[in-house]
């Protein structure tokens, strides 16, 4: 088919007119100038959007728009018990975040919530109208529940505050927001990836037959419709039917009268007729000719639903025919509306599904790729919360209804029933808090029961927190071993980071957004539909379009036009339609996130405005010239233009995955061809935030970048500006973090430089001492002395002072003193019974001297309780020595005292601590060497770290080599090097700088051995590399035990370091000992040193007995004494308890 | 063989650094000198800090670490004992120096520097040069730092804070000789290229005489680029790059706690004492 190529679309917006120079035809053949610094659009983009805009936008949409719609849909409560009674919601709004108690006049800051274990939430208030007796009462601002508020969303108090104000509120100005604070924990609602709803997906079933499926989703209902093939015949498969229904029967039941009509809708070409013939045959053999017969047939296949016995059966039971018609109208393809049982839309849709299957039978290319990203939708916090809110609101309304009913049933009511008094916010508040703090999303209506939706925001490093906000979870089962959904799909280009995914079971299922990705929110459909109709779309349901017109088989040129998966109509000049819509979008008449996708193979135009699509901004190119010129960039730098102005002026537009298929996108200006439609803003944006930290990632082997993405999240560094005011469960901070010598643009954009996590170490790549095998590092002791790799570990230890039901309270006891000498354990306590900040806590020291009353149940009026009525329940320090950094006293929601003690310990690197560079090269400290033993160069510099050169050849991390060069040159020039992806400083330039400063161009130096004083026989690659200290430290893992605690049940040694457990001699170790024949050792390890137990066994009956007495034989003659593992004795007894009698047969050896 | 007499020739002497040439001795001796200067020359450094009040943003260990790294004038370090060898139980005037620091910030911000450390011994003070005192911590309004610090005598082996030097290094004196016979046979282009092959401009080409000469041999970093080039043009013997035997160019840069010459002298005397010990012990062994 001949069609105008998309690049010929002429759309000059009025704004463009004054830039006449661009369109000067005489200049068309000039070489295209590079728009220098077009990457500046990237910071401009991030300035308006921030890095977590997708979360915040989605939440804002929910809280400002969606919540009102949900209220409208559930606005009225009535009851059969009293027909006059009603309760109606009028308006709903979410207020300012506040705390329940009035410590600060109700207002609450996020940081206060973190410290006090509160939930950062705001009241949802509604205006209501209801009947009280015979009156109609109106009330404004009734709180129906509390909604957790996303930080930096439109309802958050931090929005629009400048850094100074944020600092006053105890907040970090470079924190991204986008998470919730729930009971003091920071919680992120992960982005959920799903297959898109309301779209036809052609796939192969497990018998390799082509089938079509549609998952319909509307506000009321979710359903799945399949059209399947069996033996060349087509069937409809829905859950509500017991059996697959021949498709022709369904079409007849929907009111398609003649076979001719059916054929015309499916396609009149011979291929289609042949494909459907067998299905017609089946319909005839079932002797179904009329609609009535078809409905009767379908009615007989309806699954019988067992209704609950409490609900009365509907008195006027509808006939099977009616029921069948109902199901066809509501369940089958439920997203296609049916008005007055006019099935025209629906059978058009169904015949389209059939047509697609028949097409795919002939041409396997027509089978959809399930992993294609245009078929995916991302569910964000707003959507998930709105699901939860509707469910909770329904529950809330039901509870109100029940209260009302039970009240009306009461005889002789004294007071007039006032329903507003029953409106407690608890249902909704607790529902939200429970969902967010557990991560379990249970929505009964849609049979949704998902877990792991929320996660605790990882505050290990700044980048881990930021990376957490861009993380995305797939609904796909982690255990399944398939590669399809896990592998990188070409359509993900620019939308998802190709490097950032975990290793192991979640590999490829957990993904991260790229730097410029935007996730859309829902947009109004009706105006768009109207616009499309005005642009010449012939509607299916109004116009009596013939089947030929819809299929386009009869020489008709019409393309089907879809709006969000619904058939809107057909258009005879689809290219003009697409072009006009895009034109209007560039002019701002249509929302910027609306996508128009022309699918020539399917003869369709897909218009999408639904939420959850991923899209990204691109520079528009027409006639071979990018619309963004240097002049624009200059204006951007001068602050005259903002990113949004570029959008408004139609210089830039957002493309989603589908629309990208209609575009030719050039990466660089030099690649622009006559048919190019768009230009990338900056190639580094294909990477996400975590991968953006890597210098020269394009020179590395790709898995190395993936490893670094995982390790960057474990790097110790600065976390946020408010890091020292936080009291987190565990916080690792670095004492002297440094900006990397070689940075990237992403590093500058994300603010990593302000809160870095690592240090620039001078590295010599050479072997030294033999303690550097297997990636171990050699560290310079003097560097450690001077603060290299030094870190602070802060840990929270909370104690709560409880109030018991009899009103008695826990109390804090003053430190014990005897003859003026403090009790040894109480030495560190202040007079209030809590440790004084600054004291060192040693093993055994008490840090909170809490006392609990002995009587916590019975009422006791004795006010001045004596010491005798309490017993000590102190918190005692049991670990390595630490300092008490802070003590905080506060109260929580639940109204008891909370004491938080923050412990601090400063650690210097030691043998076995883990370090890593930014190239996925991790290693532990193998030896710490004195400075005088280190090799030195002619300037007397010696390395901080010596790295073994064997780390390079197999890893192929060329980026690390270049990083060293770039860093070294930077040191001499007094500036930072750049290692930005697909750019950065060139090795050639770097070498020139090195030579200029009297160094070898290849970065190699002549070193002298510090031990012998002789020059080393090789040139050593020597220079700075940015090293991260990872959270895995020997001090937290080191463990050994001789004798120690045992488990109560089995009497075997406990497991794990925390319980001072034993070291397991596992199966494989056991195998070794067996193979070696060391049976005595085996016996010693597995029994004597574990759970040896002496029992007495009767030689006669083989049962266990007493020492010298068998209770079974009532005899004292036959007892023998044996040693067995306690676990086996336990097994015997458990067997006996199950009525199995194990008997031991003893023999003399 | 006549006994060698090691010689020292001072090339440059500045307030905080010196360069000298040690000659007529082995690398082992030169290296021993270097190692002793780094690791075994005693100085004074703050080793114990007692905090009375610290409301600054940095916590106690952080500040203590920073205090330790401040160089203290140690020219009179001889008068102190090592604490572990001193007769006192804890520490005393003979083995330690007490410092006091008390700063309260009343303005918007205030920097606590090494100048705020007041010593009880005039000989041991924080090193101070012109107006660049060492910042310990920056205080905000209302914050206070009050502490007592005790400096002790120690050596760099124990902790880098006791190192008296920033850089102590020696390099070999380069010996670069051009084989002028071969050079004369080269054409002009090759001569120029040869001269330019060195990244640190050791060679110079004289246009008038059309000769290549060794201009600044001491610049050489032994990168072998000149060698590579001469190999490339098929004359591997064109240039000889090596070092002069038994000549070591030392650079000693002081952290400020000791003058550079003090460091060298102190190191030499320590070396001497060590040798004397060896001598003593050996004699005792032999006498038996
Ligand atoms: S070895 Fe290198 S630095 Fe030395 S002279 Fe030759 S080229 Fe120049
Ligand atoms: Zn018995």
From TrEMBL, chain A:
It catalyses: RNA(n) + a ribonucleoside 5'-triphosphate = RNA(n+1) + diphosphate. The keyword Protein transport does not apply. Its EC number is 2.7.7.6. It holds the Pfam family RNA_pol_Rpb2_7. GO terms for cellular component: DNA-directed RNA polymerase complex; nucleus. InterPro entries: DNA-dir_RNA_pol_su2, DNA-dir_RNAP_su2_dom, DNA-dir_RNAP_su2_hyb_sf, RNA_pol_bsu_CS, RNA_pol_bsu_protrusion, RNA_pol_Rpb2_2, RNA_pol_Rpb2_3, RNA_pol_Rpb2_4. Keywords: DNA-directed RNA polymerase, Metal-binding, Nucleotidyltransferase, Nucleus, Transcription, Transferase, Zinc. GO terms for molecular function: DNA binding; DNA-directed RNA polymerase activity; metal ion binding; ribonucleoside binding. Gene3D superfamilies: 2.40.50.150, 3.90.1100.10, DNA-directed RNA polymerase, subunit 2, domain 6, RNA polymerase alpha subunit dimerisation domain. Residues 197-379, 455-519, 561-622, 643-675, 1061-1146 form the RNA polymerase Rpb2 domain. Residues 50-429 form the RNA polymerase beta subunit protrusion domain. It is an enzyme of class 2 (transferase). It comes from the Eukaryota. Residues 1-23 are annotated as: Disordered. Residues 690-1059 form the DNA-directed RNA polymerase subunit 2 hybrid-binding domain. DNA-dependent RNA polymerase catalyzes the transcription of DNA into RNA using the four ribonucleoside triphosphates as substrates. Belongs to the RNA polymerase beta chain family. This is DNA-directed RNA polymerase subunit beta. It comes from Planoprotostelium fungivorum.
UniProtKB/TrEMBL annotation, chain B:
Its main location: nucleus. Keywords: DNA-directed RNA polymerase, Nucleus, Transcription. It is found in: Nucleus. It comes from the Eukaryota. One of its GO terms (cellular component) is RNA polymerase II, core complex. Residues 17-281 form the DNA-directed RNA polymerase RpoA/D/Rpb3-type domain. InterPro entries: DNA-dir_RNA_pol_30-40kDasu_CS, DNA-dir_RNA_pol_insert, DNA-dir_RNA_pol_RpoA/D/Rpb3, RBP11-like, RNAP_Rpo3/Rpb3/RPAC1, RNApol_insert_sf, Rpo3/RPB3_RNA_Pol_subunit. GO terms for molecular function: DNA binding; DNA-directed RNA polymerase activity; protein dimerization activity. GO terms for biological process: transcription by RNA polymerase II. Belongs to the archaeal Rpo3/eukaryotic RPB3 RNA polymerase subunit family. HAMAP family: RNApol_arch_Rpo3 (MF_00320). This is DNA-directed RNA polymerase II subunit RPB3. The lineage of its organism: Eukaryota, Amoebozoa, Evosea, Variosea, Cavosteliida.
């Amino acid at each position: 088919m001949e069609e105008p190529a998309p690049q010929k679309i002429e759309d000059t917006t009025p704004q463009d007119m004054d830039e006449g120079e661009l369109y000067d035809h005489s200049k068309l053949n000039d070489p295209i100038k590079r728009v220098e610094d077009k990457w500046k659009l990237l910071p401009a983009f991030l300035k308006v959007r921030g890095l977590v805009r997708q979360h915040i936008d989605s939440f804002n949409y929910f809280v400002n728009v969606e919540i009102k719609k949900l209220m409208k849909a559930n606005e009225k409560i009535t009851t059969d018990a009293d027909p006059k009674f009603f309760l109606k919601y009028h308006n709903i709004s979410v207020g300012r975040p506040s705390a329940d108690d009035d410590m600060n006049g109700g207002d609450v800051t996020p940081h206060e919530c973190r410290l006090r274990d509160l939930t950062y939430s705001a009241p949802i208030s509604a205006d209501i109208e209801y009947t009280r007796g015979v009156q109609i009462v109106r009330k404004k601002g009734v709180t129906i529940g509390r909604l957790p508020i996303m930080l930096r969303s439109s309802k958050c108090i931090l929005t629009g505050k400048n850094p100074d104000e944020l600092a006053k509120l105890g907040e970090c100005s470079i924190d991204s927001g986008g998470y919730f604070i729930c009971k003091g924990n920071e919680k992120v609602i992960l982005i959920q990836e799903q297959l898109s709803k309301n779209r036809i997906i052609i796939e192969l079933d497990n018998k390799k037959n082509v089938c079509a499926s549609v998952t319909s989703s509307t506000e009321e209902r979710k359903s799945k419709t399949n059209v399947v093939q069996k033996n060349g015949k087509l069937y409809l498969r829905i859950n509500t039917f017991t059996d697959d229904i021949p498709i022709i029967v369904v079409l007849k039941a929907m009111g398609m009268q003649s076979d001719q009509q059916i054929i015309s809708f499916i396609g009149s070409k011979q291929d289609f007729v042949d494909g459907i013939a067998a299905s017609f045959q089946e319909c005839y053999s079932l002797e179904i000719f009329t609609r009535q017969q078809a409905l009767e047939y379908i009615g007989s296949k309806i699954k019988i639903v067992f209704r609950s016995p409490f609900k009365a059966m509907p008195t006027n039971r509808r006939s099977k025919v009616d029921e069948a018609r109902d199901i066809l109208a509501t369940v089958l393809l439920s997203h296609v509306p049916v008005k007055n049982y006019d099935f025209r839309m629906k059978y058009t849709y169904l015949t389209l599904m059939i047509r697609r299957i028949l097409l795919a039978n002939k041409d396997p290319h027509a089978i959809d790729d399930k992993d294609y990203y245009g078929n995916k939708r991302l569910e964000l916090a707003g959507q998930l919360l709105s699901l939860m809110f509707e469910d909770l609101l329904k529950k809330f309304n039901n509870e109100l209804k029940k209260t009302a009913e039970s009240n009306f049933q009461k005889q002789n009511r004294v007071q007039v029933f006032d329903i507003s008094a029953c409106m407690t916010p608890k249902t909704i508040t607790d529902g939200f808090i429970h969902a967010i703090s557990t991560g379990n999303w249970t929505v009964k209506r849609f049979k949704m029961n998902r877990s792991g939706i929320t996660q605790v925001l990882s505050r290990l490093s700044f980048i881990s927190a930021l990376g957490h906000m861009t993380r995305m979870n797939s609904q796909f089962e982690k255990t399944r071993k398939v590669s399809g959904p896990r592998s990188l799909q070409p359509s993900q280009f620019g939308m998802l980071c190709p490097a950032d995914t975990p290793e192991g079971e979640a590999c490829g299922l957990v993904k991260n957004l790229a730097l410029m990705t935007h996730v859309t929110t829902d947009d109004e459909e009706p105006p768009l539909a109207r616009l499309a109709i005005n642009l010449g779309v012939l509607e299916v349901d109004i116009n009596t379009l013939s089947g030929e017109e819809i299929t386009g088989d009869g020489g008709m040129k019409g393309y089907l036009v879809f709006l969000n998966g619904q058939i809107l109509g057909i258009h005879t000049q689809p290219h003009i339609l697409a072009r006009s819509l895009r034109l209007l979008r560039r002019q701002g008449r249509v929302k910027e996130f609306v996508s128009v996708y022309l699918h020539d193979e399917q003869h369709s135009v897909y218009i999408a405005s639904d939420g959850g699509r991923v899209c990204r901004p691109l520079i528009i190119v027409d006639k071979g010239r990018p619309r963004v010129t240097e002049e624009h960039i200059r204006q951007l730098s001068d602050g005259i233009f903002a990113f949004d102005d570029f959008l408004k002026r139609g210089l830039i537009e957002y493309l989603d995955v589908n629309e990208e298929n209609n575009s030719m996108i050039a990466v660089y200006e030099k690649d622009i061809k006559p048919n190019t439609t768009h230009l990338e803003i900056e190639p580094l944006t294909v990477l996400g935030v975590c991968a953006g930290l890597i210098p020269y990632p394009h020179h590395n082997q790709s898995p190395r970048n993936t490893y670094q993405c995982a390790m960057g999240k474990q790097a110790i560094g600065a976390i946020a500006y408010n890091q020292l005011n936080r009291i987190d469960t565990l916080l690792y901070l670095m004492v002297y973090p440094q900006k990397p010598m070689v940075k990237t643009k992403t590093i500058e954009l994300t603010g990593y430089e302000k809160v870095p996590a690592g240090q620039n170490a001078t590295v010599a790549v050479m072997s030294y001492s033999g303690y550097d095998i297997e990636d171990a590092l050699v560290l310079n002791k003097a560097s450690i002395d001077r603060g290299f790799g030094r870190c602070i570990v802060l840990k929270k230890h909370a104690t709560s002072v409880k109030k018991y039901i009899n009103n008695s309270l826990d109390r804090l006891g003053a430190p014990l003193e005897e003859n003026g000498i403090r009790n040894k354990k109480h030495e560190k306590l202040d007079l209030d019974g809590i440790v004084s900040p600054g004291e060192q806590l040693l093993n055994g020291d008490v840090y909170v001297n809490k006392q609990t009353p002995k009587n916590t149940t019975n009422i006791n009026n004795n006010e001045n309780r004596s010491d005798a009525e309490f017993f000590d329940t102190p918190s005692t320090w049991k670990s390595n020595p630490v300092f008490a950094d802070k003590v905080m006293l506060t109260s929580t929601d639940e109204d008891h005292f909370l004491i938080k003690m923050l412990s601090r310990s400063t650690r210097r690197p030691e043998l076995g601590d883990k370090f890593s560079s930014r190239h996925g090269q991790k290693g532990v400290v193998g030896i710490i060497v004195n400075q005088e033993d280190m090799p030195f160069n002619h300037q007397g510099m010696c390395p901080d770290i010596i790295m073994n050169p064997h780390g390079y050849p197999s890893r192929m991390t060329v980026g690390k080599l270049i990083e060293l060069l770039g860093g070294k040159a930077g040191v001499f020039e007094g500036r930072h090097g750049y290692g930005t992806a697909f750019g950065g400083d060139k090795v050639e330039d770097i070498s020139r700088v090195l030579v200029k400063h009297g160094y070898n161009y290849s970065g190699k130096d002549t070193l002298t051995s510090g031990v012998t004083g002789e020059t080393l026989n090789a040139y050593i690659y020597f220079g700075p590399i940015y090293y991260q200290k990872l959270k895995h430290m020997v001090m937290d893992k080191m463990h050994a035990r001789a004798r120690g605690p045992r488990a109560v049940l089995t009497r075997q040694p406990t497991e794990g370091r925390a319980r001072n457990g034993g070291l397991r001699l596992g199966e494989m170790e056991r195998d070794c000992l067996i193979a070696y024949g060391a049976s005595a050792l085996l016996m010693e390890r597995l029994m004597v040193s574990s759970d040896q137990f002496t029992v007495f066994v009767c030689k006669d009956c083989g049962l266990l007995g007493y020492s010298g007495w068998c209770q079974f034989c009532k005899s004292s003659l036959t007892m023998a004494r044996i040693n067995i593992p306690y676990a086996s004795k336990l097994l015997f007894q458990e067997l006996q308890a199950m009525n199995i009698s194990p008997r031991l047969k003893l023999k003399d050896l | 063989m006549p006994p060698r007499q090691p010689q020292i020739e001072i090339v440059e002497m500045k307030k905080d650094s010196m360069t000298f040439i040690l000659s007529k001795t082995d690398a082992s001796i030169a290296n021993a000198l270097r190692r002793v200067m780094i690791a075994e020359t005693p100085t004074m450094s703050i080793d114990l800090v007692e905090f009375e009040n610290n409301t600054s943003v940095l916590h106690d260990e952080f500040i203590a670490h920073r205090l330790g790294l401040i160089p203290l004038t140690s020219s009179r370090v001889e008068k102190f004992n090592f604490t572990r060898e001193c007769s006192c139980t804890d520490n005393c005037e003979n083995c330690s120096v007490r410092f006091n620091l008390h700063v309260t910030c009343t303005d918007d911000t205030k920097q606590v520097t090494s100048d705020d450390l007041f010593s009880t011994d005039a000989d041991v003070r924080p090193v101070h040069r012109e107006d660049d005192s060492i910042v310990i911590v920056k205080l905000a309004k209302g914050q206070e730092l009050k502490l007592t610090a005790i400096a002790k005598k120690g050596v760099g082996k124990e902790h880098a804070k006791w190192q008296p030097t920033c850089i102590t290094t020696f390099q070999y004196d380069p010996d670069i000789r051009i084989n002028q016979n071969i050079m004369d046979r080269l054409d002009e282009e090759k001569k120029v290229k040869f001269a330019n092959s060195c990244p640190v401009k050791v060679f110079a080409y004289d246009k008038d005489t059309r000769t290549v000469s060794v201009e600044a041999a001491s610049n050489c970093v032994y990168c072998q680029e000149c060698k590579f080039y001469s190999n490339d043009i098929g004359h591997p013997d064109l240039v000889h790059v090596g070092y002069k035997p038994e000549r070591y160019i030392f650079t000693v840069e002081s952290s400020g706690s000791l003058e550079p010459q003090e460091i060298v002298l102190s190191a030499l005397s320590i070396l001497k004492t060590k040798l004397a010990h060896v001598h003593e012990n050996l004699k005792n062994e032999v006498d038996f």
